Amino acid sequence: MPGRGLHFVKLHGAANDYVYVDGFVEPVPADPAAIAPRISDRHRGVGGDGLVLVEPSARADARMRMFNADGSEAEMCGNAVRCVAHLLVSRGRAAEGTVTIETGRGVLPLEVTRTGPRSSRVRVDMGAPILEAAEIPVAGHSGQVVDAACPALGAEQAWWRASGLDPRMTCVSMGNPHLVLFCRDVSAVPLETVGPALEHHPLFPRRINVHVVEVRDPAHVRMRTWERGSGITMACGTGAAAACVAGALTGRTGRAVAADLPGGRLELEWSPTGHVFMTGPAEEVFAGTWFDA
Fold first, then answer.
1. Which CATH architecture fits 6-125+280-290?
2. Residue 149 and which of 143, 201, 227, 288 are 20 to 30 A apart at CA?
3. Residue of 77, 83, 150, 183 marked catalytic
């Protein structure tokens, strides 16, 4: 954006941080896919896991579009949508309480409770999980992919034993695709190599988000994430929702869990209605103007 620059707000949800452009008052970039990698650069840009546009909507209080750090557009992000809801309430564009946001997953209702001048606690109705392989999608599978062999992992390696990896995969879509692998110790999984190999494997035609999950008890998990298009991130809201569903489907957890991620804790519940609810923080970090060199 030559001349005046691009005004933005930096927010994070459990340290899953994005650069937000408030399209109610700011002209949105004409080519956000091109700008996202540059503005997300943590050395030459603002720094973040991607770029989020907040725009007016005819169907909801606002529309969210999000672009990963590599410029690819994603359907949904649970941490980002909480931050959008906070931004709307904090700027007076919606009242505290129920807020609706249009996403690639559809219109989602959220409950916003302010916790400070620059923070909120937000509960999101993430909708019902998508479990059919063809809709996630997972190539060569039909029906649900629950504790299925994961040929994308290849042959057993030493880190499998160190981490106690169970090489069976459970795949869930929360509007975007997720692969969940359970293990004894998430810190022993070399996610920096496993993540990209799985993300780009032909088994997953639209690429996939990769999560390793350690079950501490039936109501408490620890997890790490490789996000499609962004790499290792501090948290993933849709991924935590997918882990909750995967734990319940495989009998490893109940339908309500606290998920500890490197960036903080999220609370998940796969309710009797079939919808997954997620509760977590949304916090403003700073605002500024970015001048793209």
1. Roll (3.10)
2. 227
3. 77
